[in-house]
Amino acid sequence: MKRRTKKGKLTHANNREEKAGYKKMKCPSDTKQSALVLSALIALLGVYVIPLSAQLTLSEPHRRSVVYKMDEASLTVHNELLNENLTLSWLSDHCYQCLFQKLGAIPSGKGPGLPSSAAFFVSTQHPLTLQLNSTQDTRELCRVHFSFGEHGNYSLWIKNLSNLTQKITCPIVIDKEPINSYLPILIAFLVYAGVAILIAIGGFVMGQSVLFFFPHRLDPVKKIMYRMITTMETERLINSELGSSNQASESSSRDPTFPAHRVATSRLRSLDTFRGLSLVIMIFVNYGGGRYWFFRHESWNGLTVADLVFPWFVFIMGTSITLSLNSVLKRGYPRVKLFRKTVWRSLQLFLIGVIIINPKYCMGPLSWDSLRIPGVLQRLAFTYFVVAVLEILFFKARPEDITMFLIPELVLYWPAWIFIVALETMWLCLTFLLPVPDCPLGYLGPGGIGDFGHHPNCTGGAAGYIDRWLLGEKHIHQTPTSHVLYLSTMPYDPEGVLGSFNSIVMAFLGLQAGKILLYYKDLHVQIMARFLIWGFMLGGISAILTKCSRDQGFIPVNKNLWSFSYITTLSCFAFIVLLIIYYVVDVRRWWSGAPFFYPGMNSILVYVGHEVFQNYFPFKWKMLNSQSHAEHLAQNLLATSIWVFISYLLYSKKIFWKI
């Protein structure tokens, strides 16, 4: 639907978001009732959330001609100044050190009491600064800071309070209140929370009913429920696609150095739950996240929900690597054969990422001339290969007296730590010391209109330069997230070569979590204490590097660059989240990990499937109103729930895809 030509055109992020945007669970048991519950949830979302799209886009009768896009408001500027043509410019608070962008022109007033008017659309994602300049001599007449609401109508009045002093004011008046664009999120949350509560109550009532009516049958029922929860027969069939998360003692319980009074074959469900949680959020944000800005990747510095999940997946991959290789190496499996398997597994991941789910398919048949080489699975493949090889080379069995080492995950693994420190040093040297043509040394900015437009072609600094030199401009991502807000024009890939260095460090930090689980098996307090110490230590490093700010630090948190502060911050979060899930799922057993546990058991299949079938029904369909957050949110949540349901069905049928 096109807008009226008399409206001013806003060159803000919203209007190009769909063109330039980078793409990138509910039952406590494993019973078949989960299928019915998920189906009911899908129906509830359709009934309660989708109709909001009609309600949230209604306009007042006298403004029905205004056609809004998402995250937009209408602004009518009234100019009462005689003989003074004006130019209106805007600047987003989220755009660091950016130039003002022209919004449009406002003619001079027609006469006393007869102001001229011009209408524009403005963004509602972040607060804006509006600036009015005289067209004749470009002097600034007025500046106003305001946070607009979605689909609201506003008027900006330019008035001259005194002809003698030429004092000009520019108040903003609300003509029509904006809609509550976050109401669909609240409705969706209540639906999911309600279903979870009903399941919990239903499980409790069922258990009490069995106890009351069949007290003599309680023990068999408990045994059956325990078997359904642990499902060890199924889990013995699984060698996780990126490292098994089986507890270390699964194959080494006969070792006298490990306590034998615990259940030795218990799988750490918390790891699969954490992996599944990351994957579910990743699917949701990849499908659009309801088109809310905080469910999409940050333009440059900073964090959104979408920026959390990929590093967490990398982190838990590192944790699983050490747990899976530990038992194999302790049995004396030849390291050469393990190395060959590692190479083959990494190659498979890389080829799946390049050939099967390459985003270039969106532009037609795959062309080798413009094939994008980096990607999510490609980075996972490279990271997995390096970290797994480190584990194979420097593996050491758990010593009998672990208490003699203050930090065993460091002391016993010092050769690998030397490699990681050297790798991070290399990243720092390349990032801050590599000369980049026509760019300042150590540049970390987005280019475009950032840094007051001084370095428009320096997007990503050394990271972007290395990718363009090594892979070629046509083989990396053409429209990075910085293109939306910073108007950068240089190709840049967030999964590029230099960022892979820090991806390896991130996975290695996850591997340390696995070492803690191995060395302090069944010592829950010790495990959680060390998770907490690692989290605080990494958080402190992040605070120093960023100066607790988004843009002012030495090394800002930046997902596009995979900066050092980014991986320390996300590793801090990962240790804390894993601590909580470990305590709730594996220590206290208050929660089975469902529904996130199911996609966590089949992560590669679910990830590849959601990428391949993302444009097919029922994961996507033509919307009644494509400019409605409510309808996008309902579609994205339904698609994500379907993949959770599919992963449950695969789990119940004992179907697991491993590579």
From TrEMBL:
<feature type="transmembrane region" description="Helical">
    <location>
        <begin position="527"/>
        <end position="545"/>
    </location>
</feature>
<feature type="compositionally biased region" description="Basic residues">
    <location>
        <begin position="1"/>
        <end position="10"/>
    </location>
</feature>
<feature type="transmembrane region" description="Helical">
    <location>
        <begin position="34"/>
        <end position="54"/>
    </location>
</feature>
<keyword id="KW-0812">Transmembrane</keyword>
<feature type="transmembrane region" description="Helical">
    <location>
        <begin position="410"/>
        <end position="434"/>
    </location>
</feature>
<feature type="transmembrane region" description="Helical">
    <location>
        <begin position="309"/>
        <end position="329"/>
    </location>
</feature>
<feature type="transmembrane region" description="Helical">
    <location>
        <begin position="380"/>
        <end position="398"/>
    </location>
</feature>
<feature type="transmembrane region" description="Helical">
    <location>
        <begin position="565"/>
        <end position="584"/>
    </location>
</feature>
<protein>
    <submittedName>
        <fullName>Heparan-alpha-glucosaminide N-acetyltransferase isoform X1</fullName>
    </submittedName>
</protein>
<feature type="transmembrane region" description="Helical">
    <location>
        <begin position="349"/>
        <end position="368"/>
    </location>
</feature>
<feature type="transmembrane region" description="Helical">
    <location>
        <begin position="596"/>
        <end position="613"/>
    </location>
</feature>
<keyword id="KW-0472">Membrane</keyword>
<feature type="region of interest" description="Disordered">
    <location>
        <begin position="1"/>
        <end position="24"/>
    </location>
</feature>
<feature type="transmembrane region" description="Helical">
    <location>
        <begin position="185"/>
        <end position="214"/>
    </location>
</feature>
<feature type="transmembrane region" description="Helical">
    <location>
        <begin position="497"/>
        <end position="520"/>
    </location>
</feature>
<keyword id="KW-1133">Transmembrane helix</keyword>
<feature type="transmembrane region" description="Helical">
    <location>
        <begin position="633"/>
        <end position="651"/>
    </location>
</feature>
<feature type="transmembrane region" description="Helical">
    <location>
        <begin position="276"/>
        <end position="294"/>
    </location>
</feature>
